[in-house]
């Protein structure tokens, strides 16, 4: 194994047309880690994930995955390398059954990345197993989040980019989703987690990056961040 990180974002500038959002942004994720990117509304978290995925192209800097420069690859090609983005809006097919949603994500291992079979995914996510024949639209918010994550695994992801997976969920479901993320990680999936909710990050992440106005302003373990009152107060509104 190389000692290079699985994912590395180096000095990236990116944005939308003339609007620069990310400024000289660097972060890295080692294989097997859960890393969080935490910041307020509009800080640039989603833009970072879109840039990693290839939905946006950096105007300078570089994104490297498994040692390959993927900065100029489109999202489909990046997905074939084993990266999956689970967007905030979860994007499942509401009219298709849970099983059909999973089957559609199954690309037959074309990427060469080991994927979870549909049956194995249903075994992993008990709530989904019980609702395999029900339409996606009948799932609760938390179950839709689980289905979106399960789709990423069936699609062969080994790095999952999660955009605010707990957004809008009832507190007891937040815990379920956190348990699922921790479980995935124990099975070897690497996670880059974007959150506004620092408590989720502190519980789940090995390391955290705090983003403010498109810039990384802090990096530290969850133990360090928990003690960093000034960072929590200034950038995350938590005291
Ligand atoms: P949120 O939690 O609200 O999703 P975020 O940290 O994910 O916040 P981004 O969605 O990355 O933030 O947005 C960062 C900045 O980029 C914001 O100022 C936002 O208005 C701007 N922005 C986002 N999408 C676009 C777009 N399509 N065109 C122009 N500006 C955009």
Automatic annotation (TrEMBL):
One of its GO terms (biological process) is amino acid transport. Keywords: Amino-acid transport, ATP-binding, Nucleotide-binding, Transport. Pfam families: ABC_tran. GO terms for molecular function: ATP binding. It comes from the Archaea. Signal peptide: none annotated. The keyword Ribosomal protein does not apply. Belongs to the ABC transporter superfamily. PANTHER family: ABC TRANSPORTER ATP-BINDING PROTEIN (PTHR43820:SF2), HIGH-AFFINITY BRANCHED-CHAIN AMINO ACID TRANSPORT ATP-BINDING PROTEIN LIVF (PTHR43820). This is ABC transporter ATP-binding protein. It comes from Halosolutus amylolyticus. The lineage of its organism: Archaea, Methanobacteriati, Methanobacteriota, Stenosarchaea group, Halobacteria.
